[in-house]
Amino acid sequence: MADDKITTAAPVLNEKPAVRDVEETSSIRKADSYSDVDIDAIIPGSEGVTQRDMDTYRHVADTMPLSAWFVVIVEFAERWTYYGTTNLYNNYIRAALPRDSRDGRVIHDRAQGVAGALGQGQQTAFALSTFNSFFVYVTPWVGAILADTIWGRYKTIMIFALVCLAGHIILVGSATPSSLQNTDGAVGLLALSIVVMGLGAGAIKANVSPLIAEQYTGKLRKQVLPSGETVIYSPPLTIQSIYLYFYAAINLGAAGAISASFLARDNGYWAAFLVPTAIFCVVPVVLAVGKKKYVVTPPRGSILLETLRVLRMAMAPAWSLNPAYTCRVIKSDGFWDAAKPSHYPAGQVPAHITWDDEFVGEVARTCNACGVFMFLPIFWLCYSQCDGNLGTMAAAMRLDGTPNDLIQNLNPISILVFIPIMDKLVYPTLRRYRINFSPIKRIFTGFIVAGIAMLYAGVLQHFLFQRSPCHDNEPSACMDEAGDPNPTNISVWVVAGPYMLVGLSEVFASITSLEYAFTKAPKRMRSVVMAFSQFMIALSSALNFAFTELNKEKMFGWLFGTFGIAAWVAGFLFLWTFWDLDQREAELNAIGTGEREGFAGEDAALTTAPGSLVTEKK
């Protein structure tokens, strides 16, 4: 990407709203039929595309720019190192050193043996793993604020990549044979590494997702393919495709961590943690090599204070002891009027209003995006079982030479299988038949599939209790007289079902939430909105602590059943709550497409829905 495409100008909060944007958006909202507009007029921001073209030709995704592939490589390496370490936490913390082992490797009965080191038990393993998930998804706020106000996304990612690397080095130190001789010291180093790596990984996470989508600067255009077919290259579809492959990079990195399970079992935990540390060194190198090719968005100044002031002014008329009244006012069309300068007579605008009407529209759009994420903690509760409890279940089953924590890699592998199927077959087929599988509907589907995965796990746990030699007395810790594992006579591969179903649910819910966060967030607020979407995982981890008593092996059946039913209930409530937003998808995308965000020259594109009369900012 050429240097002249690097963004250099920051918007001014008190600039006058774009008249063209307001008028066209208003007319768009009023347009109910083709009689309201000229369908042969060129769509603003496109390269000669008309509404008639949009309704006539097939819509396809554009190619990804080289700079976006650099971001993919960064994410691949970062996720390999993350999952290459966190996938081992459950065994590393829960299980004690195997017989005659000094570094966690299995020396006797390697076919059925389980690697271990700290011997802190299931609940401590659950607590530390859950804290790791909580912390790594709280720290995106740090990265988002620093990127938006001081450093910009690129510099923020580079700095916190070095922080994360330091955390990995500390983790390797915690797992050396000499460190494991002092269990308390090893646990302390582990906790320190979790904090340092969580700070680095979280700050990266808030910025790498919007960074990859910002690399695409193409416009809506039509083109004749070598086959003779005329197609519409759609920026919205391109963004959707970019996030599908971005998520594929995440899960390819997670699948690449398969070696970690074998390294821990056969060579000890210090070796298993050292390999991801070495791979992480790729991240700053690739960032440095691609520096001049990235489309870089500079820091745009702090907008959090202004956003909070807008919210305070808009909420002032809504406060009431009657919650029904408050909800009714919030949902009303004029809810945001009190925060708009145009709401006040000339010369009577409150002095503390330093923004314009368009900024209020951006805040409203941001709140819409963030509101959609509020149901996701229930979804992430289901996903969290992949990191620990399902691995504990696998430890109770017949391994036949397969490390129990290897099975969880079926989750990213299944995602890698499902992504091209959805991108190349399912989604294009739905579009061909004019079936609008919108983001809201995709997220709803993710809830339903995640619930099915949890019920599958609950039924499997029931059979484990029945068939284990130890029955419901911790089948994962069942030993024979020699002190070697005495597993249930059920193949560990049976537990693949929940991992694969959760993977499919992520394709619907998690990938779509990234896409939704980017497309619904104003340009200046993308890192913040992305941080908010990641924060839902932190809330899920905090909520998970409320189920500490159920996070005991003998209670797993109740735990999985509870999460499965909760996912279904949350899914239907989600669909019911946001059905209105789903029907207004195109209208919401039209907000904020004025000159401030590039309406006149850059980034304006028509929505993907055939027959739509609305421009969508990407």
Automatic annotation (TrEMBL):
Entry keyword set: Membrane, Transmembrane, Transmembrane helix
UniProt-listed Pfam families: PTR2
Transmembrane helix among keywords: yes
One GO CC annotation: membrane
Lipid bilayer topology: Multi-pass membrane protein
Keyword Cytoplasm: no
Signal peptide segment: none
Record-level Gene Ontology MF annotations: transmembrane transporter activity
GO aspect biological process, one term: oligopeptide transport
Subcellular location: Membrane
Transmembrane segments: 125-147, 159-180, 186-204, 242-263, 269-290, 443-465, 490-516, 528-547, 559-579
Lineage top rank: taxon: Eukaryota
Family stated for the protein in its record: Belongs to the major facilitator superfamily. Proton-dependent oligopeptide transporter (POT/PTR) (TC 2.A.17) family.
This protein's name: Peptide transporter PTR2B
Species of origin: Pterulicium gracile
